[in-house]
Write a structure and sequence with these properties.
Helices cover 74% and strands 1% of the residues. The chain is mainly alpha-helical. Helix 2 runs antiparallel to helix 3, helix 3 packs antiparallel against helix 5 and helix 8 packs antiparallel against helix 10. It is globular and about 60 Å long.
């Protein structure tokens, strides 16, 4: 842990020292070495927080894949942002790289800590660098409004969580996740248990708590969209798993019945919203809400299959949605518009990009053998085992997800080329490398999906 944090700090310092002509190459190479270190240092052979690094830091099969995914995010986001930031000043480039590395440092501490207060501080600390990314390097003037939505939704939902942690400390005299898991928390009332999960439901987010997400995604730069989709949304799922573990009695008796029904039908409604979207990034953002709603429904069943499926879905969705946002940014750079009807016919000027769209669209709809399908099969099995009637919204959700995922591919890769799309260009080496960095982890999960499983020892 200290090695990863020290190496990340070194990347920040190096970015301010090296000359501009070598900035991107050195930053990407150093961050790639950080990813390699994270794969060696963290193993997920245990299903409990028993691999203690220190008194307040530990790793297990839940947080280890998320830490590795966080470290994977650095070289990918930096490589994806070169074309957008190559024409700005050297100091702005340094600030951009430093903010990305700072987010990874915060995420590493947040995922590995066993203290709820440290977790809360890390959970909220990602707000500041992400807000700066959205408001400073956003695409349109509406990025300021998107920043307001992002801040107020996060802060308002986090206040009940902080109050709940204080009350929890007064009841149990500790804020350690491991100790709270083994203690009997039956005296915690239902209101407190509900307050504990509100912040995570907003961060994920599920339907009804999602209004900030499409605005933030649409106005954020490509790096901001990839960070939000790949990592920051997964903080909510990780926190929900941890909280429900030691509040399982209140959760199972009073909360999960309502939450499962709400999330299942919320996922269906969000899929319907996706069918009406004309903005490319907005459609991808709403599809994330749909997938995350079904994931929360699975977590609410509180079974081993549900926890395993949620981890697989978080990792696979982080890879696929990040790749979709990067592909959307390529279309935006060529056509200067995110409107689907304007982007039709661009397949005629690309040779390989339609293939990438097909691969990640199929992964987004959960087509075997992609890991998304493995996670969704386990998640839907847990939900149906909870109540057979939930088969109805799940069937609708699967159907609508397939429709809008394939419609997205057809809209962008069919039709005649318009006059404003007569651009003779193709994918360059950097863009092909970024797509490859997305597909390689998916291939690894296809070959060995057990590396993200949370089976009990």
């Amino acid at each position: 842990m200290i090695t990863l944090i020290s190496w990340s700090t070194g990347i920040i310092l190096t970015s301010w020292i090296v000359p501009r002509k070598n900035l991107w190459e050195i930053s990407i190479s150093q961050s790639s070495l950080l990813l390699t270190l994270s794969c060696f240092f963290f193993n997920n052979n245990t299903s409990s927080l028993s691999n203690n690094i220190s008194i307040n830091l530990a790793t297990d099969s839940i947080n280890s894949p998320l830490i590795i995914l966080s470290c994977w995010l650095i070289p990918v986001t930096i490589a994806a942002s070169i074309s957008n930031l190559n024409n700005i000043t050297h100091n702005d480039n340094n600030i951009f790289i430093s903010l990305n590395i700072l987010i990874i440092i915060i995420l590493t501490i947040t995922f590995s800590t066993t203290n709820l207060i440290i977790f809360f501080l890390g959970f909220e600390s990602t707000l500041i660098p992400t807000l700066i990314l959205i408001t400073r390097w956003g695409m349109q003037k509406e990025r300021i409004e998107a920043g307001y939505y992002f801040v107020f939704y996060t802060l308002i939902s986090s206040l009940p969580l902080f109050i709940s942690f204080i009350i929890l400390y007064n009841n149990t005299n500790n804020l350690n996740i491991i100790l709270n898991f083994f203690q009997n928390n039956w005296n915690i009332n239902n209101i407190l248990a509900s307050f504990c999960i509100i912040a995570f439901l907003v961060k994920i987010p599920i339907f009804g708590f999602h209004l900030w997400l499409p605005k933030a995604h649409v106005e954020a730069p490509v790096a901001g969209s990839m960070i939000l989709a790949a990592i920051l949304l997964k903080m909510g799922g990780y926190g929900l798993i941890r909280i429900t573990n030691f509040l399982w009695l209140n959760f199972n008796l009073n909360i999960n019945n309502i939450l499962i029904i709400f999330c299942c039908w919320g996922g269906v409604l969000t899929s319907l919203i996706c069918l009406t979207q004309t903005d490319l990034k907005s459609l991808i953002a709403y599809s994330s809400v749909s997938h995350m709603s079904f994931m929360v429904a699975a977590i609410s069943t509180n079974t081993n299959w549900a926890i395993s499926s949620s981890i697989i879905i978080m990792i696979a969705h982080g890879l696929v949605s990040s790749a979709l946002f990067f592909a959307a940014n390529i279309f935006y750079e060529r056509s200067s518009s995110r409107t689907l009807i304007i982007s039709r016919g661009l397949k005629n000027i690309f040779s390989i990009l339609p293939l990438w769209w097909l691969i990640f669209s199929c992964a987004n709809l959960g087509l075997p053998p992609f890991p998304n399908s493995i996670g969704e099969i386990l998640a839907f099995s847990s939900i149906i085992n909870w109540n057979l009637i939930s088969f109805i919204p799940i069937s609708l959700g699967i159907t609508l997800t397939s429709i809008f995922s394939l419609s997205l591919y057809i809209y962008l890769n069919s039709g005649n080329r318009f006059n404003w799309n007569n651009i003779n260009t193709n994918l360059n080496e950097r863009e092909s490398l970024t797509f490859s960095l997305h597909i390689l982890p998916l291939i690894t999960l296809i070959i060995n999906p057990n590396i993200t499983m949370n089976w009990p020892s």
